[in-house]
Amino acid sequence: MVYVLPGPIATASYAIAGRLKYVFPEDKFPFRWLPAQMTKTVWETLIQRSPSVNVQWAGFRRAENSAALIGMALWNIYLPVKNNRDAGDLLLGDKFGLGALAVAQVAMAALHGMSLFQNGQRSGTLVVTDCQNVVFEERDDPGVMVPCVTVAQHGMQIHVADVMTADIFDPAMPAGSTIAWIINGATTTDITGTT
Asked: Residue 27 to residues 21, 44, 110, 144: CA-CA distances in angstroms?
């Protein structure tokens, strides 16, 4: 049987989530994974839960001059805050609520330079590539700011051995071998296939 493993992108995602949950305790900052597409419904849910920590995988870009699968993995971290008093309080915070600058800076400081590991070996370092206040163009949300911190792992390498216990593309692989997926640490039989 061949097992499909989480691989380096999922492993890095878990590490990012763990670091964010450490600096933003979940009892005060609910944590959520976001879908790739920022729809109006996703946006409305995002700004209703404030303050909160919301992580979105933004993609993988293969390095231009590399024949191997080496590149940069990207994540967006959305950190909505609310304060209906005035724009300065929303930006800087006051006794009624956190400011957008504070949550953005904590996220940047927590993630920039963070070492990532795959199979017990250091696989790279996270870098903050961008931080900006995002808005949803179809909405006017006074009293809400959503800083978005973008982080990247440069030089991420993805090998067959990182995502499968055997190379199913190897001609020596026996025909009819079963493929099972490991999701959140458990093997599932709901998603199987054969070679």
From this structure: 10, 21, 18, 21
Find the DSSP H helices in 112-189.
160-163
What's the pTM value of the predicted model, to 2 decimals? 0.82
What whole-number distance in Å separates Cα of residue 128 and Cα of residue 193?
39
Q: Residue 172 has which token pair?
A: 């020596």
Task: Return the closest-CA partner of residue 124 out of 17, 4, 9, 5.
Answer: 9
Q: Report yes or no: 47 and 38 within 8 Å, Cβ to Cβ.
A: no
Q: Which tens digit of pLDDT belongs to each residue from 70-104?
A: 888 999 999 999 887 777 777 776 776 788 899 99
How many Cα neighbours within 13 Å face the side chain of 53?
A: 23
Q: What are phi and psi of 28, to 5 degrees?
A: -110, -30
Beta bridge partners of 168: none
DSSP single-letter state for residue 26: T
Quote the CA–CA distance of 100 and 88 in Å, as a whole number: 10
Summarised one tens digit per residue, pLDDT across range 38-63 is 888 888 888 888 899 999 999 988 88
| Number of alpha carbons in the 13 Å side-chain half-sphere of residue 133 | 11
